Amino acid sequence: MTKKDRDPISKALAALKWLVEDDASDVGVRELASALNVSPSSAHRLLNALVDSGFVHQDPATSRYSLGLEFIRISRIAASRITISKIALPHMARLAEKCGETVLLCIYDSERKQMMFVEALDSPHELRYIIELNSWKPVFAGASGQSIMAFLPDDEIDAIIDRGVWAVTDQTLTDPAALRKNLAAIRSAGYACTRGQRIRGAVGLGAPVYGPGGAVLGAICLTIPDQRFDPAQEQSLAEMVMACARVVSSDIGTGS
Question: Which of 65, 16, 67 is nearest to 44 (CA)?
Fold first, then answer.
C-alpha cells in the first residue's frame, strides 16, 4: 500500500473524481468500493465524510449518493473565475496601458456575500498598492465592493447590511443610511469612486461586470495613490473603467 493509498484526503479526492466522471447520476457504497479498490466500510466512511462537508448528497429514500450542492457551487465559482479572468485580462491590460495605474478584477459570491480580488495588473510607478489576491473581502468597503453592491437586488443589499458593516479603515462607510445613499449615487453614475475606504491613502474607481442573465459577477477597478490622483480626471478615468467593464461583460455573454 502506498502513502497515497493511506492518505484520507487523496481517497476523498479520488472518490469525488470518480463521482464526477462516472456516467451514473448516483452510486452505492459497493460501486464506489469496487471503483476505488477499497473495502465497503472504507467507502462508506469516505462517503459519509463527503456528505458531512456538503460535497456529496445521500438520498434518504434510496441510500444512494450523488454530488452535493456545495460541490456544485464551488465548481461553478472556480469555473467562472477561470472564464472571467481569461476574458478580462486582455481588456485590463489595455486599460492599464492607457491610465498607467493598477487595474484589478474582483469577483462576487452571492452565497457568501463577499468579494475576492482574483487578478491584478500592477502600476509601473514605484508608489503603488499591492493587493492581496484570492482572499475573501467585505463587499461594502471601497469602490471595488461598492461597484458590485450598488447593482445587486435590493433584498441582497439588505442582507449584506443586516450582516453588519464595520470600519475596514477610518474612512469606511459604516452608517447604513449613508451607505445606502452612496450606493444610490453609484447606480445613478454607473461607477464608484472612493477614497481610503478599503486601503488608507488609496483612491478607487470601479464598475460592475455582468454575466449571462444580467447577474453581477464582479467588477473592474482602478486603485491610485491619493497623492497621484487628480480629481479633474475622475470622469475620464471612470469612463475608461466603465468601458472596460462593459466589454468584459459583453464578451462573457450578456450582449450588453
Answer: 65
241-256 CB burial, b ≥16 within 10 A, e <16: bbbbbbbbbebbebee
Q: How far apart are CA 211 and CA 58, in angstroms?
A: 32
CA distance 118 to 109: 12
The CA distance from 54 to 68, in Å, is: 6
What is the model's pLDDT at position 3? 44
Q: Which amino acid is at 30?
A: R
Q: Which residues pair with 106 in a beta bridge?
A: 117, 219
Site of grid cell 455573454: 253
23: CB partners within 8 A, 6+ apart: none
Among 191, 197, 200, 203, CA closest to 231: 203
Query: pLDDT digits over 41-94, tens only?
Result: 999 999 999 999 999 999 999 999 999 888 887 777 776 667 889 999 999 999
In angstroms, rounded to a whole number, what is the distance separating the alpha carbons of residues 82 and 103? 17
Tracing cell 454530488 back to the chain, one arrives at 67
Alpha-carbon separation of residue 203 from 8, 52, 114, 144, 228 (angstroms): 47, 43, 21, 11, 9
Q: How many CB atoms lie within 10 A of CB 44?
A: 17
* Residue whose entry in the numeric block shows the C-alpha cell 460535497: 55
- H-run or E-run covering 221: strand 216-225
Which tens digits make up the pLDDT trace of 170-222?
999 999 999 999 999 999 999 999 999 998 989 999 999 998 778 899 999 99
Q: How far is Cα 57 from Cα 60, in angstroms, rounded to an integer?
A: 9
Q: Which residues share a beta bridge with 111?
A: none
